[in-house]
C-alpha cells in the first residue's frame, strides 16, 4: 500500500527558525479544501518553498507536460489563490525556486517549461550526475545582476551576487504588478517583487534556504521577510 505524505525539506524549517526567529507552521497542499481568505487572515507570513513538482501549464496557457512530469495539483490549487489573497490582505510572501514561479503565475505570468531548451539560455538545473554531493548541488553557480535602485540592491549595496542554481522551469512573461529585481547573465529572471514598497511580496529563483547566514542577499531577504511578518503580527494585535 502506498502512503502519500505531506512534508518539506528540513532546510526550509531551520532557515526560518535561524533567520526569522519564528515558529514555522507547515501547510499541507490540500487545494480548495481550505478557505484561503480565512487562512491568510490567521497568518503573519508565508514562505513558498521549492519542490520537485512544477506548476501545471494549464494555469498559464502553456503546452501540456509530458506524462511523466511530476505535478502537485493540490499545491497549485492552494497557493495560486493564496498569493492573490496575501497581496489583497497585505500579508508577506517569500517565494523560493518554485515559489517565485507560483507568484508569477498567480499574477497572470507564464513560465518556460525547460529553460535549457530555450535558444540562448543556459542549463540552470542541478548537476545531472548520480554521484553528486549536496555541497555540489547547492554550490554558488552563476552571477546575477541586481536591478539598479531595486530592493535587492538596497539590501546589500551591491550590483551583483553569486547564487546557486537548481531549476528547470523559469519565469517567461512577467505577471501583473511584478518588477524584476535580479537577472542571470543569459537573461533569466532570478528575483522579482510586487511593485508596492509597503508590502513584502518577493520571489527568488535560487535556493535561499541553503546557508542563508553565509549569503548576504539571502540572509537580508529572510530578515526583511521577518520584519514584515512581525509588522503584520503587530497589526493583528
Total number of distinct structural domains: 1
The amount of beta strand, in percent, is 15-25%
Task: Identify the CATH class.
Answer: Alpha Beta
Distance between the termini: 46 Å
Largest beta-sheet details: 7 strands, mixed
- Mean pLDDT equals 95
Q: Label the CATH architecture.
A: 3-Layer(aba) Sandwich
CATH H level, superfamily name: Class I glutamine amidotransferase (GATase) domain
Count, helices:
7
Instruction: Write down the overall geometry.
Output: globular
What is the total tally of β strands? 9
Tell me the radius of gyration: 17 Å
Structural class by secondary-structure content:
alpha+beta
The quaternary structure here is single chain
Task: Indicate the low-confidence ranges by residue numbers.
Answer: none
CATH topology: Rossmann fold
Helicity, as a percent range: 25-40%
Q: What topology, given as strand order, has the largest sheet?
A: 1-2-9-8-7-4-5
Order of helices and strands: HHEHEHEHEHEEEEEH
Description:
The chain is an alpha+beta fold and 237 residues long. It has one domain: Class I glutamine amidotransferase (GATase) domain (Rossmann fold). It contains seven helices and nine strands. The strands form two sheets. Strands 1-2-9-8-7-4-5 form a seven-stranded mixed β-sheet, sandwiched between helices. Strands 3-6 form a two-stranded antiparallel sheet. A hairpin with a 5-residue loop joins strand 7 (178-183) and strand 8. Helix 1 (10-20) crosses helix 7 (216-235).
